């Protein structure tokens, strides 16, 4: 399957509302964070990753599914 490229506007639609999954871009890759809490990843931990304050970044991102990349 080809990797999907998301624009900022398209990514904003994947906000977890209704039946849509919740996606987040981190370092240019788009991750599915819909079930992050079920994987032991809190919002706080995700924000620490986003803002470069996480010592566990690699371990956290390995638990999430990459669904594409963010358009340049």
From TrEMBL:
<protein>
    <submittedName>
        <fullName>Cytochrome B5</fullName>
    </submittedName>
</protein>
<dbReference type="InterPro" id="IPR036400">
    <property type="entry name" value="Cyt_B5-like_heme/steroid_sf"/>
</dbReference>
<feature type="domain" description="Cytochrome b5 heme-binding">
    <location>
        <begin position="6"/>
        <end position="71"/>
    </location>
</feature>
<dbReference type="InterPro" id="IPR001199">
    <property type="entry name" value="Cyt_B5-like_heme/steroid-bd"/>
</dbReference>
